[in-house]
Amino acid sequence: MPQAFTRSLGFTRVSGDLAPDLHRIDGRQYGHYRDLRGRRYALDSGALTFEHIQGDPFAAPSRLRVDLPAGLLRLPAWARDGADARRACADFLQRAMRPALAAAAGGAGSGRSGMLEIAAAGQEVLERTGVVVGADGAVRVRLSAGLPAAGRRILGRAASELLTRRLDGALRHVAERLDFDVLRTHVQVVEDQVALRAQLGEHGLVAFLADGSILPRRSGADPRPLGAALPLAAPDPPAVELAAPHAGTVRGLGIRTGVTLVAGGGYHGKSTLLQAIALGVYDHSPGDGRERCVSAHSLVSVRAEDGRSVRGACLTPFIGALPLGRDTGCFDTDDASGSTSQAAAIVEALEAGATGLLIDEDTAATNFMIRDARMRRLVPGTDEPITPFIDRVRQLWQERGVSSVLVVGGAGDYLDVADCVIRMDAYQPRDVTAQAREIANAHPLGDAAPRAPGRWPHAPPRIPLPDSLDPRRGRRPERVRAVRTRAIEFGPEEIDVSLLYQLVDAAQCRMIGDLLLGLTRGLCDGRRDLPRILAALDADLREHGLDALAAPGFGDRARPRGFEVAAALNRLRSLRVARPAVD
Ligand code: ADP
Ligand code: MG
Questions:
Q1: HSE value, Cβ hemisphere, 13 Å, CA-based, for 528
Q2: Distance CA 462, CA 423 (A)
């Protein structure tokens, strides 16, 4: 039976029988596990490959790969036709395998002996390296295992039990118990989101949130849906209807292109709505509550982040002549202020291709967002380097086609620049655009009316310089490591990514580390500018999958967006950029 499986996978060579090989090294020094590295063995479920062997029982666990032949899971065509179906199917399998492997783990021993683990998945259905589904229905599984030892001596029989019985049994168990109805729902829910997102453009929308969606989360630390939440109900206008291939017609709140204001009293659900829009760039798994909330791929949350570094950013749309004659056309700082950091976040997002900006008053710098009539009198424009966002937001839309969705509860001047005003009232949206217009007309701002001070300055994209990306640390030629979604250690530095709202999964953060490392291996060559580097990464990932650029053998990587890759690079303090002269 195992032979038939390996044949169907097209393997030319299997390294022999696993159990005898493990029995042979029983009782020997732990280092002898290394003999297994790169070897491939037939299990009943599929072919097991040892990608990496831990150095001792306490070290990071060994990394294994199991290639399950198409015949094991017998995935129907609907689960493997198309990249989205395969991504959803893989996500489903990874979620199903995690508890199965945890239950199968065990056995006595030192350190991590007996551990079996596949990476966890959160609320989002991401392309991952833990499980990859092939178009032919073959499935690649990557997991970590603690190869058993007593002290530092190999427990060969326990290892044999762990891999040939427990691991193999768990995989076969998942295969046998696979509930195709639940899998089908998972795939369809993802396909619907992809289809809804694809319709946004033709309907003039940047986001869509279906009636009945549950937007609030349990807490800032728990992204699961809040239990006692009021489901979203869109007001009649501007409710829109989109067509989902599986769910049929879906009615909901459409957020139009242009400038949208989310107003309303404190604690009425404004930020919650904006956060749902921000995470609508990802597909959500069934039961999340936001599985029919979709946003255009290129919406970027921007915020103030004082203290961050900024490298060669052209801040002139927002920051003019600074004290002491500092150049804001090519701005460098190790310690940005609230307003400069927010200006930088916006120009960086635009450079990376953002078509929409999401800004919440809760996390914005007030002096960046607005300057009211009285302040304009006290400090004349000539002495104030900041052009507040309110003066540029219409220009961004009209000249550059970049939409904004802004949560503004306190600054009524914004009524002048909004195409659409949504009022959140006890967690329900109401369209108050007409009322907002009346108020704006009845209380004109006169001199203080928002207006762009000039054209949007042209700035060519920045070119990251390869020498400034140095992953070395001590004697190690490359050291890159992600710390949850909080930071990426890159060489001697720790890049702070904790405030990137749209970086949702530690697995994405790890992948960004791999991609940054990839930049040091040739992609960043001192000639390619940042947008071209991002495009090259995207093309590589699209064509070859995550495996092309992920650290080999790791099952805990997931695909990030280019915006978050750029954001991490932009926060690397050692970064240096070249900026072609403005023509
Ligand atoms: P705002 O930004 O308007 O001050 P938030 O979006 O922060 O308000 O929401 C305030 C609180 O209400 C949060 O704790 C949030 O989880 C909760 N909340 C938001 N939307 C709902 C809802 N639809 N049903 C129940 N609670 C909600
Ligand atoms: Mg808020």
A1: 15
A2: 39
Four-residue CA torsion sign, 347, 352, 355, 361:
negative
Q: What span, in angstroms and rounded, lies between the C-alpha atoms of 507 and 232?
A: 30
pLDDT at 497: 98
562: nearest Cα among 297, 205, 303, 207: 297
Of 460, 461, 425, 450, which is closest to residue 259 (Cα–Cα)? 450
pLDDT reading at 3 higher than 50: no
- Structural tokens at position 539: 């093309």
- Percentage of the chain with pLDDT > 70? 97
49 CB within 6 A, ligand 1: no
* Ligand 2 centroid – CA 400 distance (Å): 28
Q: Among 115-119, 228-232, 449-453, 499-503, which is the least confidently predicted range?
A: 449-453
Q: How far apart are CA 397 and CA 48, in angstroms?
A: 54
The answer, yes or no, to whether any atom of ligand 1 lies below 6 A from the CB of 272, is yes
Task: Determine the Cα–Cα distance for residues 576 and 312; give it in Å rounded to an integer.
Answer: 8
Q: Is residue 243 within 8 Å of residue 250, measured between CB atoms?
A: yes
Structure tokens at 561: 């967006």
User: What span, in angstroms and rounded, lies between the C-alpha atoms of 361 and 364?
Assistant: 5
pLDDT at 583 over 80: no
Q: For residue 263, which ligand has an atom nearest its CA? A: 1
At 6 the pLDDT is: 37
Burial of 151 (0-12, 13-18, 19+ CB in 10 A): exposed
Answer yes or no: are the C-beta atoms of 5 and 46 closer than 8 Å.
Answer: yes
Q: Ligand 1: which atom is nearest the Cα of residue 407?
A: 2
CA distance between the termini of the chain: 69
The residues, any chain, with a CB within 8 Å of residue 57's CB and separated by 6 or more, are: 30, 109, 110, 111, 112, 113, 146, 147, 148, 149, 152
| CA-wise closest residue to 561 among 358, 371, 296 | 296
Quick: pLDDT tens for 8-55.
444 445 677 999 999 999 999 999 999 999 999 999 999 999 999 999
For residue 59, what are the contacts with CB-CB under 8 A and spacing of at least 6?
111, 112
* Distance separating alpha carbons of residues 241 and 208, to the nearest angstrom: 9
- At residue 506, the 3 state secondary structure works out as helix
